[in-house]
Automatic annotation (TrEMBL):
<dbReference type="InterPro" id="IPR032879">
    <property type="entry name" value="FixG_C"/>
</dbReference>
<keyword id="KW-0411">Iron-sulfur</keyword>
<keyword id="KW-0479">Metal-binding</keyword>
<dbReference type="GO" id="GO:0005886">
    <property type="term" value="C:plasma membrane"/>
</dbReference>
<dbReference type="InterPro" id="IPR014116">
    <property type="entry name" value="Cyt_c_oxidase_cbb3_FixG"/>
</dbReference>
<dbReference type="Pfam" id="PF11614">
    <property type="entry name" value="FixG_C"/>
</dbReference>
<dbReference type="GO" id="GO:0051539">
    <property type="term" value="F:4 iron, 4 sulfur cluster binding"/>
</dbReference>
<feature type="transmembrane region" description="Helical">
    <location>
        <begin position="159"/>
        <end position="176"/>
    </location>
</feature>
<keyword id="KW-0004">4Fe-4S</keyword>
<dbReference type="InterPro" id="IPR017900">
    <property type="entry name" value="4Fe4S_Fe_S_CS"/>
</dbReference>
<feature type="transmembrane region" description="Helical">
    <location>
        <begin position="38"/>
        <end position="58"/>
    </location>
</feature>
<dbReference type="GO" id="GO:0046872">
    <property type="term" value="F:metal ion binding"/>
</dbReference>
<keyword id="KW-0472">Membrane</keyword>
<keyword id="KW-0408">Iron</keyword>
<feature type="transmembrane region" description="Helical">
    <location>
        <begin position="85"/>
        <end position="106"/>
    </location>
</feature>
<dbReference type="Pfam" id="PF13746">
    <property type="entry name" value="Fer4_18"/>
</dbReference>
<keyword id="KW-1133">Transmembrane helix</keyword>
Length: 470
């Protein structure tokens, strides 16, 4: 037997196996069409609201301001306090039901058109195209060596991205600190620690999510993509590929007859993949990564038009609609199915209850506490007096002139100052002295302290007890 001249050649080799595929950067191709126009409509709409709302004024203050320091939330003419937490709960419940209802009917249209991640990704992609060119130019630039042209283009893009992120962070902080004061503090670099933190934190989050993470947020971070399957059914509208019409796919000349070649309408140009912001192939069926933006439908319609084929190879439809060949009207009628009607009924009920509650909401909050330093005492002419501490909160931006009175016992009356003047949004505590004539049985007796204004628009009654000593 001969010896092995290279003993190390027979040893086990170490092999490194990656458990995770490296992310391949996606270069979405620009697309025009009906759905692209709708996406940009919602980009403009949402950003006009987000960036413009803090600059609106209502009277002498910011129209929408969540003043955490003063613990007051201003929403146009409405002033809410922490005690109004029930309204926030109602809004969250309404938002959840709206999500269920909208998803059951229209799938992930919210994701494709109005989600902040989608909106800011569209803005950042537009800036990227502005500085680096279209899809092929961006790919060549990234693959090419670093030179003066690449440095200038990359630097310009980064500065534009950072500017948009910081302006977004500044606007976000302006919902919690009066934005005009925040702007003056920014110009003099006199920002507080929390304002500085949130401007840079929110700005960095916008820059990172829309500039770099993009589809990764939709695929891996957003929980909506994971549980949407529980809200979908065969009558939910989704972006669909008509496989019966498109298959078998294959390239051909424009003048060729696809039937003679045994081919479907899909020419396998892969443009639907190139325009997809999450990089999926819609021809493989519904996938959780699909955000229903309709970019693939736009570009496919362009191709079908150039080839002389009918549009709609990729379109918004439902699984039942595709299976049974339903018309748009038939699919709309099917949208009003039992689960949708139940969601709608619950949603309308809650919205109506919130609306009625806000309409009937009394802009005065009152809390009555007995004065423990003087529970009950005898005063002149044998009358019995109790002292109460009345905490009042004017939940409006109007001055209030209130009359304080007491009810519930014979001869009961308020002997302290009966008129209370409250400034707008003022919180004030006043001592109220209440007396009754002698002869009342000892023990505690229920009474009512009443606060009302002259025109009767405010009439608040608070129950308490009157103590008669033995």
């Amino acid at each position: 037997m001969g010896s092995n001249p290279n003993p190390t050649a027979m040893t086990d080799q170490e092999v490194e196996v990656s458990l995770y595929a490296a992310r391949q950067k996606i270069y979405p191709r620009s697309v025009s069409g009906l759905f692209a126009k709708w996406r940009w409509f919602f980009v403009w709409l949402t950003q006009l609201v987000f960036y413009g709302l803090p600059w609106l004024t209502w009277g002498e203050r910011q129209a929408v301001l969540f003043d955490l320091e003063a613990r007051r939330f201003y929403i146009f003419g409405l002033v809410l306090y922490p005690q109004d937490f029930i309204y926030l709960t109602g809004i969250l419940v309404v938002s959840a039901l709206l999500l269920f209802l909208f998803t059951a009917i229209a799938g992930r249209l919210w994701c494709g058109y109005a989600c902040p991640q989608t909106v800011y990704t569209e803005i950042y992609l537009w800036l990227e195209k502005l500085f680096e060119g279209d899809r092929s130019a961006r790919m060549r630039l990234d693959q090419g060596p670093w030179n003066a042209n690449k440095i200038v283009r990359k630097t310009g893009k980064q500065l534009a991205w950072i500017a948009v992120g910081l302006w977004t962070g500044f606007t976000f902080a302006g919902y919690f600190t009066p934005i005009r004061e925040l702007g003056q503090a920014l110009l003099t670099w006199d920002l507080g620690p929390w304002q500085t933190f949130w401007i840079f934190f929110y700005g960095f989050a916008t820059y990172g999510n829309a500039g770099y993470m993009r589809e990764q947020v939709c695929k891996y971070m957003c929980p909506y993509a994971r549980f949407q399957g529980a809200m979908f059914d065969k009558d939910t509208m989704i972006v669909t590929y008509d496989a019966a019409r498109g298959e078998p796919r294959g390239a051909r000349k424009r003048s060729a007859d696809p039937k003679a070649l045994g081919l479907g309408d899909c020419i396998d140009c892969t443009l639907c993949v190139q325009v997809c912001p999450t990089g999926i192939d819609i021809r493989n069926g519904l996938q959780y990564e699909c955000i229903s933006c309709g970019a693939c439908a736009d570009v496919c319609d362009e191709v079908m038009e150039k080839m002389g084929y009918p549009k709609g190879l990729i379109k918004y439809s439902t699984q039942n609609g595709m299976t049974h060949g339903w018309t748009g009207a038939q699919m709309i009628r099917r949208a009003f199915r039992p689960r949708v009607l139940v969601y709608s009924a619950i949603l309308l009920t809650i919205v109506a209850a919130l609306g009625v509650s806000l309409w009937l909401r009394v802009p005065l909050k009152v809390d009555v506490i007995r004065d423990r330093g003087a529970l009950a005492r005898l005063v002149e002419m044998g009358r019995i007096e109790n002292v109460y501490r009345v905490q009042m909160m004017n939940a409006s931006e109007h001055e209030r002139e209130l009359l304080v009175s007491a009810e519930g016992l014979p001869g009961i009356e308020v002997v302290s100052d009966r008129t209370v003047h409250l400034l707008p949004t003022e919180v004030r505590s006043v001592a109220v002295r209440v007396q009754v004539p002698p002869g009342l049985a000892s023990g505690t007796h229920p009474i009512v302290l009443r606060l009302r204004n002259a025109d009767g628009s405010i009439d608040v009654k608070e129950k308490t007890t009157f103590l008669v000593p033995r």
